[in-house]
Amino acid sequence: MVEVRFTDAHNQQWAFIDKWPVFTERDDLSPDAHYPVEVVILCDILTSDDTTDTSDTVKISVSPWGLESLEGRVEFEVRADQLTNS
Question: I want to staple 46 with a disulfide (CB 3.0 to 4.6 A). Which of 4, 59, 65, 83 is the partner?
């Protein structure tokens, strides 16, 4: 089990705990790893807001992947530059 954290578009930090294969295909989340290690959280894009002048934000959901934050949240607003295609 590992704890993974990310910061959303509003600088709020969220934590998830799950088995390491949920976050990476590599074998680099061992007790001997040099942390922090960059991982991914699979998500679905719900909406994107590119009409604001500040920055592009995207509303995502991690619920289709069986995840939720320690606080029970499954939807988050993140910066568009935090997302990658897989």
Answer: 59
Sheet holding 44-49, edge to edge: 44-49, 57-61, 75-79
pLDDT at residue number 84: 87
Q: What pTM value is reported for the model?
A: 0.80
Give the whole-angstrom CA distance, residue 3 versus residue 8: 16
Return left, alpha or beta for 65; rule: phi > 0 is left, psi -120 to 50 is alpha, else beta.
alpha
Beta strands in 13-56 (DSSP E): 13-18, 44-49
Distance CA 49, CA 63 (A): 21
Tokens of 68: 């939720």
